[in-house]
Amino acid sequence: MKLFQKILTKLNGLHYPQEYLCFAKESFPDQLHVYLVNNKRIIKDITSRHLFVGYCPLVFAFSLADLPSSIQIIFSQQVLQPNGIFTAKDALATLELGLIKKQQHGGTDIVYYEGTHGNHHFLPAFRQYISSLNNQWYNKKPGNVFLHDNLYKQVQIAYAVPRMISLITVGNNNFFNLFPTDLHGQIDETYYIISLRTGGKACKQVEAAGKLLVSQMRCQAFKIVYGLGKNHMQDLKPKENFPFSQALSEEFKLPLPQQTVSYKELLLADSFIHGIHTIMLFKIVFSRQLKAENDTLAHIHNSYATWRYKKRMQGNYLLR
Questions:
Q1: What are phi and psi of 311, to 5 degrees?
Q2: Are the beta carbons of 76 and 96 closer than 8 angstroms?
Q3: Is 37:74 a contact under the CB 8 Å cutoff?
Q4: pLDDT per residue over 88-143, tens digit each?
């Protein structure tokens, strides 16, 4: 069986040995643009106006007015103008999404959409088929979230845009937890959204505390950050168990991780459960930039990175 899995891995067409590739977001050239479209027409560029906050199912959040109950977005290497007509070759990937929730808090309107179908051209059709077989046969493991059918493709598309991996600090009285997240982001000047696995210890710790510290990290810390992934299912522990610096946050006095670029202190305002996720809305209490924003840790999926490699596009990847 292991031999057959090796054959599938050999045939899946992916260039890199890891599913997700880390890099410094600011020095990653020629990033994809994301466009809201309707009937082959560009409505607006939403590259920096959407948040990826769920992968099972796929969930995007927007603070945009007058969106319909179903929308289509495309991912393109091309710079496209509003009201312009796009062609099939302009759309490297396409996502269709349906409205699942409207949320209003403190004058902020937020809408959440769930992915219903995705299609991409990062890999040839045969390579995508082999990749789906490998996913179907070998990713159904205890403790692993299995991305079935088209959902696996939707997630590959969502991770074609660099997603920042930050660290969350939660706890008090010298007992803390420190764990990574890439399902998060600032929705406007006042609010921030973070999604955590429902029922996980990290999620329960955040709900109990009602506040947290989220820190953007230097890309050089990528091995440490990935290594902290197991802490989503760990209890609070004394401070010395974590790679904290001596610095404390301004308001909550929570310890900052080593190699922090910037941080935000967040107060829980609202939450809801969708799929495996508890999607949390936080009010931003305090923000501080500690270092120049030129090497912030982010990652993308191997499928899009492979497409870039074949197009001879630069990639400043940090392989674990």
A1: -90, 5
A2: no
A3: yes
A4: 999 999 999 999 999 999 889 999 999 999 999 999 887 777 777 777 766 666 66
**Three-state secondary structure readout of the chain:** CHHHHHHHHHHCCCCCCCCEEEEEHHHCCCCCEEEEEECCEEEEECCCCCEEEEECCEEEEECCCCCCCEEEEEEECCCCCCCCECCHHHCCEEEEEEEEEEEEECCEEEEEEEEEEEEECCCCHHHHHHHHHHHHHHCCCCCCCCCCHHHHHHHHHHCCCCEECEEEEEEECCEEEEEEECCEEECCCCEEEEEEECCCHHHHHHHHHCEEEEEEEEHHHHHHHHHHHHHHHCCCEEHHHCCEEEEECCCCCCEEECCEEEEEEEEEEEEEEECCEEEEEEEEEEEEECCCCCCEEEEEEHHHHHHHHHCCCCCCCECC
Cα 20 to Cα 23, 129, 256, 264, 303, distances in angstroms:
10, 19, 25, 25, 9
**Cα–Cα distance between 85 and 240 in angstroms, integer?**
57
Provide the CB-side half-sphere exposure for 228 (13 A, CA).
25
Q: Which amino acid, residue 203?
A: C
Q: For the segment 186-227, what is each residue's pLDDT rounded down to a tens digit? A: 999 999 999 999 999 999 999 999 999 999 999 999 999 999
The C-alpha atoms of residue 7 and residue 55 are separated, in whole angstroms, by: 28
